[in-house]
Amino acid sequence: xxxxxxxxxxxxxxxxxxxxxxxxxxxxxxxxxxxxxxxxxxxxxxxxxxxxxxxxxxxxxxxxxxxxxxxxxxxxxxxxxxxxxxxxxxxxxxxxxxxxxxxxxxxxxxxxxxxxxxxxxxxxxxxxxxxxxxxxxxxxxxxxxxxxxxxxxxxxxxxxxxxxxxxxxxxxxxxxxxxxxxxxxxxxxxxxxxxxxxxxxxxxxxxxxxxxxxxxxxxxxxxxxxxxxxxxxxxxxxxxxxxxxxxxxxxxxxxxxx
Amino acid sequence: xxxxxxxxxxxxxxxxxxxxxxxxxxxxxxxxxxxxxxxxxxxxxxxxxxxxxxxxxxxxxxxxxxxxxxxxxxxxxxxxxxxxxxxxxxxxxxxxxxxxxxxxxxxxxxxxxxxxxxxxxxxxxxxxxxxxxxxxxxxxxxxxxxxxxxxxxxxxxxxxxxxxxxxxxxxxxxxxxxxxxxxxxxxxxxxxxxxxxxxxxxxxxxxxxxxxxxxxxxxxxxxxxxxxxxxxxxxxxxxxxxxxxxxxxxxxxxxxxxxxxxxxxxxxxxxxxxxxxxxxxxxxxxxxxxxxxxxxxxxxxxxxx
Lengths: 258, 305
Ligand SMILES: Cc1cc2nc3c(=O)[nH]c(=O)nc-3n(C[C@H](O)[C@H](O)[C@H](O)COP(=O)(O)OP(=O)(O)OC[C@H]3O[C@@H](n4cnc5c(N)ncnc54)[C@H](O)[C@@H]3O)c2cc1C
Ligand SMILES: Nc1ncnc2c1ncn2[C@@H]1O[C@H](COP(=O)(O)O)[C@@H](O)[C@H]1O
Hints:
A: alpha/beta; two-stranded antiparallel sheet
């Protein structure tokens, strides 16, 4: 089985974000980046599938972005991917989901992947579009918000998450794109030997111009921090003082404490 | 300006969330028509045109057919915007329609500023203002961001849409309900919730201890539940329970859109987070900036005295 996993390298969401000079994105220097959380579930599921097939699968890990994304690809390889593909684009943040999906589809078109895994959304932009867009472009079946998957031959039975914890059960045939939701599995930590092995794995690099042939459909006007509503009180300082203050607030609010 | 609103229908019923689409259209000052793939037994209270197809024929979940039905309705209506909720139905269907029409899509809209759309980024720590470059584009709106004021009224005029051939690449086998809940958080007056910031499973006991001292229930965020630290029945948020207690204490919780959707109606919110910029601060009445595993034990000694 030929498997493609699309991954994005995103900043740690606990970072302090500062809008860049151009005002259209955040300043990336000084930020720690990691593998998009949802894509970690995607890589893990692909590797588990390969294990279930007794190794009879080939996993390509693909990411579009500047050089730093190689770090995410290496993590995917250390988790069990076979080959990395870096589509190099220093200005990926200016591309809309449609362009990202077009580049992925252009790469995948002649490669006959049976199954493409993506995350359900990217944490930095969260459009939840790229996977379904790519499926449409490749004319593959697509199931989003995957929380469970079982494959037998070319028939897939899957569960997708709906609101309030309800699930919908679906069945479809390969080839397909699935977008992975949180909780699909528990991603493994790469072991040291596997991290070392990953360094020897094939890593192909292409300029984005090889695959991206379409213009953006969306204009980004600006990026800015949300307006502070000023409703809340912010308490800072020594833990003991904070505890005093919170205890006073709680004693006022909570009948059980009186 | 014209909008085509894609209503939501599940388990034989029109979903209330459909009215949020009308609220959004109003916010845009746009004329609206709807598409309902549902049943005549459950029509929206809406006095305009509803393009209608039978869910009995096309299924409640059949994205390939629904995509074509949206395109049919759009061809008749020629809207400036085709609007979905950013829901499990909407985020699934919208990009398929966008890609098929080769048009722009803007997801998770939370506001409208001079005809451009405001969307969150980076777990709601930032906002972006974006606009489609071409007409007849696709929008998905954040559930809860636009609420319908007043009572909806009217009887729609139906215009049927149909497809020549039925397509069904994805077979829908049915729904699976969430596990039965042994705690009804919705009734709790006080909830103390643990987020990933509590660090590890053993620490959840400390947060549960605070809940006990306050006479409340323990709640949790999704990753804490997924990790098996807390039972699913205690998950607060869009894929868990919606709660509105008198007091909500958020411990080590960043305040994602999906979590906030489940607890923002709480009367009083206290957040404990080491990150002063955490978006939970946007809804909290009090944000204590501290390490939760230092502050909560210190607080407990003061409360049990
Ligand atoms: C379709 C969908 C549905 C979802 N449904 C839900 C849902 O129902 N409920 C839900 O909760 N989520 C839901 N999510 C997930 C949601 O997007 C977030 O990922 C999740 O809410 C984050 O949980 P968290 O705040 O515990 O973790 P994080 O976002 O990782 O935040 C941890 C926080 O803890 C703080 N912290 C870290 N260490 C400490 C410390 N020592 N002391 C104090 N603070 C500390 C950090 O600053 C950070 O703000 C859903 C997502 C999707 C896509
Ligand atoms: N630059 C990228 N390179 C590779 N895959 C991506 C990229 N951006 C998004 N994806 C994939 O598409 C999914 C959805 O992203 P988005 O539509 O931005 O929310 C992500 O979880 C990734 O799997």
